[in-house]
Amino acid sequence: MEQSPIKLSRCYKTARVFPTDVNNHNTLFGGKLMAYIDDIASISASKHCRRSVVTASTDSVDFLFPIRPTDSVCLESFVTWTGKSSMEVFVKVITEDLKTGERKIAATSFLTFVALDENKKPVTVPHAIPETEEEKRLNETALHRAEMRRSRREGSKKFADYLTTTFPWE
């Protein structure tokens, strides 16, 4: 089986928080941060497998601290674990107060991507090899998160069976 060190999937994105990026609380819109997260995570997944990828799920986004206009926001992402054609990607969001230099973990997120071939069919991905302590810890705990994803997905499919597709005006 093909293997690839996790470090080869690592990506970084740093952005400034502009007035048009904030909500009525004068903090970064959650949706704006989620778009940044999906974007950088997809790049990490593509770098790992060198294929087109599709977001299979956003497993979690935990907002830990508000991000203010005086902050920069830096996202770090990397593949933590691989299945046959799927990849779990972790995104760490670090804020830095541009005046004081104080840094905080503002958010964390796990997403799952599937690698696709030229016909848009799932394709096998290289096994992710952790090297740093952080990579090893995330890799060791990934199987539990994968089991939770499977269970949640099954529940979501059952739940969807109870939902209607008609609109109130129909």
Automatic annotation (TrEMBL):
Q: Does the keyword Coiled coil apply?
A: no
Instruction: Could you list this entry's UniProt keywords, alphabetically sorted.
Output: Hydrolase
Domain annotation HotDog ACOT-type: ranges: 7-119
GO CC aspect terms:
cytosol
Tell me the GO molecular function terms.
long-chain fatty acyl-CoA hydrolase activity
Q: Which GO terms describe its biological process?
A: acyl-CoA metabolic process; fatty acid catabolic process
Q: Which family does it belong to?
A: Belongs to the acyl coenzyme A hydrolase family.
> By what name is this protein known?
Acyl-CoA thioesterase
Q: Which organism is it from?
A: Paenibacillus thalictri
